[in-house]
From TrEMBL:
It holds the Pfam family THOC2_N. GO terms for biological process: mRNA export from nucleus; mRNA processing. This is THO complex subunit 2 N-terminal domain-containing protein. One of its GO terms (molecular function) is mRNA binding. Residues 11-48, 66-134 form the THO complex subunit 2 N-terminal domain. InterPro entries: Tho2, THOC2_N. One of its GO terms (cellular component) is THO complex part of transcription export complex. It comes from Rhododendron griersonianum.
Amino acid sequence: MQVTLRCQGCEESTQNALAATVGIMKSLIGHFDLDPNRVFDIVLECFELQPDNCVFLDLIPIFPKSHASQILGFKFQYYQRMEVNHHVSLGLYQLTALLVKEDFIDLDSIYPHLLPKDDEAFELYNSFSSKRLDEFFCDMAYRLIKFGKINLAATGKDLMENEKQGDVTIDLFTAIDLESEAVTVRASELENNQTFGLLTGFLSVNDWYHAHILFDRLSPLNPAEHIQICNKLFRYISIRIIS
């Protein structure tokens, strides 16, 4: 059955071919007493490997809608195990996003299966931002002490007369370096944050409606700070401009 599904190309997806494929699948399930959920799992795996094969969009509705969220949820939960050392593939994010876009599943039905939870992610990001801000001000204070001498007894006029160009400076390049370092540190966050991954999935399948929902929901995390998300966003904007 899996070979049949993977060999069934979109160009062969006539109405008769689709009806025949659905009939064969139902016959296999009934004849061999197969677990429908396991069959559905195989269908989703094949769809993940062949996202452009439109035959799957006609196969999925023969299974209960509620089962899709559970099966996908189990897939995401698998990657949350401590012993699993690899991350969720972009294909799974795109598959999930496409099923949401096509209204096979609801966003709110799959979202609870993703990690980290919003409150935990917000708290972690706030701690990260506070630490980054502290490092910036510490660096600026060091440079003020190193390059400038401040006389607390001096008047404003004295400071203007005695100040030499370059005595007290705000190093723009240092600020840029700190920001670049922060982006690098957050790169690993994108790999581990499944909600960000789903956001990239929505942008990949050109679903701005649900992408916008996640942008609003995740706005405290500043998702656009990630280069990968920015690239997907620019790609979507380019497509919209051309179309």
